[in-house]
Hints:
Residues 27-180 form the Cytochrome c assembly protein domain. By secondary structure, the protein is mostly helical.
Amino acid sequence: MHRFANPARFLRLSAALRPxxxxxxxxxxxxxxxxxxxxxxxxxxxxxxxxxxxxxxxxAWMATMVYATMAVASAVGLVWKHPxxxxxxxxxxxxxxxxxxxxxxxxxxxxxxxxxxxWVWDARLTSVLILFFIYLGYIVLVSAFDDQQRGxxxxxxxxxxxxxNLPIIKFSVDWxxxxxxxxxxxxxxxxxxxxxxxxxxxxxxxxxxxxxxxxVLLRTETxxxxxxxxxxRLATAMAARGGDAPALGHPVG
Length: 253
């Protein structure tokens, strides 16, 4: 981890990984959509509406997975003062919020014909909605400080506190009586889904993951570039006033 505290090393790794991530994302997204729309059968109860699952379920997985990586990166940033971990968290938050919004929207579209309502204050749905608000809270909090470093630290604390919601999301269907169905893909004893449904779902999950990797690498590179620009502007302003530029606290190149 410490090797990539130097943004220059991270940028080299990111430049090597981004084309592969984009290629995997495009191939699996096209393949997954074809399997989901044309190859997989309709459900015997839900009919064609079951195809919403191929968007909803991977989006739900990504919503929690992205937040889990943000929590780990926040801990690394706070404990080891890892600058790239801090910038990764900032870069990942809007993407995680987007996946969560997609999860909620697709869930409403799926729930209306199945449950007869667009929304219920179900334990799973409510905890995912709280996750969405935590994402938004992080984005607003980080931007609320003039000093970016203070904003990143405050955001890291919020992320770690909000991580308590992840096990609630995961086990809400087991702890409470909810309309939401229990786990059917990843559970003890193996998946209960037929392979004709399971494989398109897994391919779409890979597509969403690869798309996230590509986007978050791109956004993290942008955050590093913006930090360098701010540092150069500060150094130029201090030099113009005849003073010495203050220490930046973290390496920027």
